[in-house]
Design goal:
This protein is mainly α and 434 residues long. Among the domains are: 123 residues, no CATH class; 63 residues, no CATH class. The protein has 23 helices and no strands. It is elongated. The N and C termini lie close together (7 Å). The N terminus and C terminus are likely disordered.
Amino acid sequence: MPQFRIARISLLLAAIGLSAVPALTPAFAQDKAAPAAEAPKDSVRPEIYKLVEPAQIKALMDAKNYTEVQSRLDQAEALPNKTPYEIFVLNRMRISLGSATNNTQMTTTALESVINSGKLQPAEQKDFIAALGNMYYNAKEYQKAITWFNRYQTETGDNKMRPYIIRAYYFSNDFATAKTELLKDLEAAQKSNTAPKLEELQLLANTGAKTKDQATYLLAVENLVRYYPSDDYWTDLLSRTQGKATYSTRFALDIYRLQKAAVSKMSAEDYAEMADLALLAGQPIEAKQALDAGFTAGVLGKGPNADKHKKLRAQADRQAADDMKNIGSGEASARKSKNGTGLINLGYAYVTMGQYDKGIALIQEGIAKGGLPNAEDAKLRLGYSYALAGKKDEAIKTLQTVQGADGRGDLARYWTIWVNRPVGGAAAPAQAAQ
C-alpha cells in the first residue's frame, strides 16, 4: 500500500497564504519629552518595524537572501518586552522563512506559536492547524500529527482529517487503534449503504497482515472483493480461506468453481488441480472445461509440465465425450439409488453443460430424496448452480440458508458477493494488500 502522503508544506503554505509576509501597522514614534503612550493594539514598535518592514522582507525573500532575513528576525527577537502581537508577527515571518529554507523545526515551532496566539481569524486558525498537522505527518512525527489533526476536528467539527489520523496510528505501529477506527468506518459505510474507500480497506488488510490477524485480513479482502473486485483480490481471498483452521478440504473443488467464475484467468496449477478434482468427483465435462480454459488462456501446455497437461486434457476429453453420450441414461439409475447423491451429481453435470433448468431440477430432486451425508453441501451447490444460471434472486435466497464454519458458510457468502458483483463495474487496481 502506498504511503498516504500529504502535499508538500511549501505548497500548502502558499495555498493558504502562510508564506506571505504579513502587513504591519507601525506604532507612532513618541516624542521623548512627551509622556509614554501605549502602542496601538496590533502594531509593532518602530525599532522592530525598521527591521521587518514587509516590503523589505519581501524583497529579501524574493532575492532568496534568507541569511539577512534570519539576521533581522534574530535582532528583533533580541529586543526586550515584546508585545504578544510583535511575537505573533515575528513568528508569521519565521513560518515563511522556515518554509522557504526547508527548516521544519523553525516552521512547526512558529506555527504552534501563531495558532496559540489567539490572533488568527477562525478561517485562518483552521487552515493553520491543518498545515501544522500536515507538516508533522509528512515529517513522520505521527503522534504530533494525531494531536493536531484531532484539534482540527474538535475546533471545526470537520472530519476530513480522519483518514490521516488513522494512517498516523498505522504508521506509528499502533495497529490496534488503527484497526478499531477502520472497523468503525467500515461499519458506518455499510449502514449507510455506501462503498467503503478502497484505501481504507487496503489499510485494514495491511493491519491484519502486520499483526498476523487472519480474521481481520480476511474481512478486509472480502470487502475488497465485494466493492472493488479484481482477480488478485478474489484469488487471495479464496486461497487464504483454505488456510483457516476450520476449513474442510472437501470444498477444494467448490473453491475452484467460484474462482473460475470470478477471475478472468487462473494459474496453470489451479486449472490442472481443478481438472484433477473434477475427474475424481465424476465430473469429466467440468474437467474438460477447466483444461480448455487453461489452454485458451495460454497458461497450460507449455513449460516443464506441458506433456502432463496434454495427457490430462486427453483423458478429460475421452471421459467427457462418454459422459455426454450416456448422461441421459444415468437418470433412471440415480433415481433408484437409496439417497440423492447421484441425482445431485448428475444435475451438476447438466449445469456444467449449460442445461441449467434440467440440472437444477435434478439437484432439487436429489435434495428432496434425502439420505445425503452432507445435506448443507447440496444446498450450497444448488445455490451456486442458480448463480451460474443467472438466477440471482433464487441464488441469493438459497445461499442465505447455507450455514457452516468449515468453509461452507464462507463459500455461500462469497457466491452471494459474486452474484451481486458490479455489472461492468469499475474494478479496483489489481493490487493485493501486503
